[in-house]
Amino acid sequence: MPTAIAVTSPELVLPSPDRHTPTAAVLKxxxxxxxTYSLDRALTEMHQLIxxxxxxIVLCPASAPQAVRHRLHAIRxxxxxxxxxxxxxxxxxLGLSVLALQxxxxxxxxxxxxxxxxxxxxxxxxxxxxxxxxxVAKLDRVPVTLRSHTKSWVPGTQFAVLxxxxxxxVKAGGDAVLxxxxxxxxxxxxxGQLAADWVTDTLADVWQVQGAVDVxxxxxxxxxxxxxxxxxxxxxxxxxxxxYQLVSSVRREDCHWCGLELIGDRCAFCAAPLLPPSERTxxxxxVTTGTRALPRGAT
Length: 299
What we know:
31% of the residues lie in helices and 18% in strands. It has helices spanning 28-31, 39-53, 66-79, 93-106, 113-124, 146-151, 197-207, 221-225, 240-248, 277-280; strands at 4-7, 25-26, 56-61, 84-89, 128-133, 159-164, 168-171, 186-191, 212-214, 230-236, 253-254, 261-262. The protein has a six-stranded mixed β-sheet, with helices on both faces. Strand 6 and strand 7 (168-171) form a beta hairpin. The protein is of the alpha/beta class.
């Protein structure tokens, strides 16, 4: 079975684009209160995912309550398992949903669990996530100038804000535009209490997207963007072959601690940093019985 991609809320699960892409596992332990979903049930839930899939990659928004993060780490600690990777992301809700979908698409490819989990950081740089906002008066996740704060009180003023892969803000309807992706993308947009015309017409045209799709607005979006007057959007690479080539082009290394493959500078499963080049050839993967990762390719 492919590596499980898990999320902390059902609102982070976008529909599968084809019959081959598996859905994401929604962790009830993160979505429900500990009062109604006990630790024993949470442990059983995660244990069943590990037994069925071998490895579990959990995408957790950085904006999630601290109690949720503590609960997830407690589950891993009690299970004493290095087969669980927690990937925290600064992406806004719709952008995180897109990242989860891309990992789900790649999970059916021949990537090892370590490479797949490490790929989350890489793919984040290719997701253009933002929103059209009716007010930026309370926005604190993207830098807002005093002038923008002042304009925000003028009735009818709207702002186009980019949160990732870099931050930017322009007045919607003005001459300035948001930085556009330099590669082919598909646009997903989720209307809140604003009309989506600017996103589907102006933004889609400037970004030259390969189509725009309307999706439900995640419930967390209004809190993340500090207003319900918004249209959230995310443009990303839709073609699985391009995603595959992107991840495949990055050099792979073996983690010196758990033995899993990784790309980048840190193992997503055991959090061990990549050794300096001078130390890599001398260090052999350290694998002990019981709590270390499975051999590559095992389930």
